[in-house]
Specification:
By secondary structure, this protein is of the alpha/beta class. The protein has a single domain (about 1-114), classed as Transcription Regulator spoIIAA (2-Layer Sandwich), CATH 3.30.750.24. It is built from four helices and five strands. It has a five-stranded mixed β-sheet, sandwiched between helices. The chain is globular, with a radius of gyration of 13 Å. The N and C termini lie far apart (about 30 Å).
């Protein structure tokens, strides 16, 4: 379960469940591609409600990051739980993802990256 909201020139993608099963992401990527076509190239992925994350979830996040970067944009992860933050460190993905704890921090980084 996810939700996409627009905030000025940034879209915020909220995940409302753990990212541990391989779900059909076709609709999510269609929606994200539509947002990119409408010139929303900056994305914040709020994962505050995600307590469990496995390889399927990591793959999903990497695909979202790749989609935005391939289209001249950027994506930031926001509000990871302690367990998800530890997993990002262990997998060394924290070196790939920018991770912040607030929307204001994400907004500053994204607007500076334009």
């Amino acid at each position: 379960m996810y939700q996409i909201k627009r905030h000025q020139n940034i879209i915020v993608l909220y995940f409302h469940q753990n990212l541990i099963t391989e779900i059909n992401n076709i609709n999510l990527f269609i929606e994200l591609e539509n947002e990119i076509e409408e010139n929303y190239k900056l994305c914040v992925v709020n994962i505050a409600e995600v307590q469990l994350l496995n390889s399927n979830g990591l793959n999903l996040l990497i695909r979202i990051l790749t989609l935005f970067r391939n289209n001249g944009g950027e994506m930031i992860l926001m509000n990871p739980s302690e367990s998800v933050d530890k997993l990002l460190i262990i997998t060394k993905l924290k070196a790939i993802f920018q991770v912040v704890n607030s929307y204001e921090d994400a907004k500053k980084i994204l607007n500076a990256s334009k």
